[in-house]
Amino acid sequence: MPTTSSRTRAGKAATVAPAPSETAAVFHALGDPNRLAIVRQLLADAEKACGSFDVDITASTLSHHFKVLREARVIEQRADGYRKLNTIHPFLRAHFPGLLADLAGVDG
């Protein structure tokens, strides 16, 4: 279930906390070492093509990991000609900024 936002008195968007199932999906997705490596590489490079990740797995396994990460809204993909480019999903940036900072090795 997607989260919603409302407006505060100052007119700024107030983000509603993710549902427990959304939080569980994010942590499940990040619970695999290969998926965690994918996310860390995206945090370092901002955007990467599917074939440019430094992980020692087959293309079909990599595709599976991308699917898990997309469904949990950890990453998003966009077409760029014949390839797909991956970035960190805005949902993850909005709801888990501290986690992303930890994964990137940045002090909070």
From TrEMBL:
Molecular function terms, GO-annotated: DNA-binding transcription factor activity
Xref: CDD domains: HTH_ARSR (cd00090)
Pfam family, one: HTH_20
Sequence ranges assigned to domain HTH arsR-type in this UniProt record: 15-108
InterPro entries: ArsR-like_HTH, HTH_ArsR_DNA-bd_dom, WH-like_DNA-bd_sf, WH_DNA-bd_sf
Range of residues in the leader sequence: none
Matching PROSITE patterns: HTH_ARSR_2
Gene3D superfamilies named in the record: Winged helix-like DNA-binding domain superfamily/Winged helix DNA-binding domain
Superkingdom to which the source organism belongs: Bacteria
SUPFAM superfamilies linked to this entry: Winged helix' DNA-binding domain
Stated name of the protein: Helix-turn-helix domain-containing protein
